[in-house]
Here is the input.
Amino acid sequence: MDFSPQLLAELNNNSLYQHLGIEVSEVGQGTASSVMRPDPAVCWPFPEQPHGGILFTLMDTTMAWAVLSKVAEGQSCATISMEVQYPQRALGAEFSCRAEVVHQAGRVAYTRAEISDAQGGLVATAQAAFRVVKAHF
Here is the structure.
């Protein structure tokens, strides 16, 4: 699937991404990148420290877009499983996420993602499996 800048802008215009501060910036050829500027409401227990579940959502979202860049028109994907590691505390006003599809076998795509803080420090990594399904839009 091709994702033009106009289509990315339309996809980013949803209440979930806006509330969490997520913006998908690039999607194509089995990779995706995103930026998160977390709303203070999702930072807990400390200011400028997004909850781990928010980081999980950022990686899940970005990995899904990487998978979607490889599927045919009319297809979507759903997370089967995901494992996350948090090697360092996430502190700051901006985080970047990069995801890639590392293997695809039939209708299952295997992905990995990393989140870095503004200084380039690794704050989270994940591996996930996604099932390619028929889109229900």
